[in-house]
Amino acid sequence: MVKQKWYPIRTIVCDRGTLFIKTLIGEVALYRTDIAIWLERDDSGVGVKKPLGRQQTLQLN
């Protein structure tokens, strides 16, 4: 999400410990020291989804 707007992901590449995520409007690089939160868009209109109750960690080697 950028500027309150959702953009689809085109590609995700991991190279030398850096995660590159490319969308329709550009690319972001996430490094080993970065913290990222992965969001899921909810178009159901029902309300806020509850967390799954578990946390996943992405290890970049």
Quick gist of this model?
The protein is mainly beta. Helix content is 0%, strand content 30%.
- Give the integer mean of the pLDDT values: 78
What's the shape?
Answer: extended
Q: Count the strands? A: 3
* Major β-sheet strand ordering: 1-2-3
Model regions low in confidence, pLDDT < 50 over at least 5 residues: none
Beta-strand share of residues: 25-35%
Helix content range: under 10%
Major sheet attributes:
3 strands, antiparallel
Task: Set down the secondary structure blueprint.
Elements: E1 9-15, E2 18-23, E3 26-30
Antiparallel strand pairs: 1-2, 2-3
Can you characterise this structure?
The chain has strands at residues 9-15, 18-23, 26-30. With 61 residues, it is mainly β. The chain has a domain at 1-36.
Quick tags:
single chain; about 60 residues; mainly beta; three-stranded antiparallel sheet; about 30% strand; extended
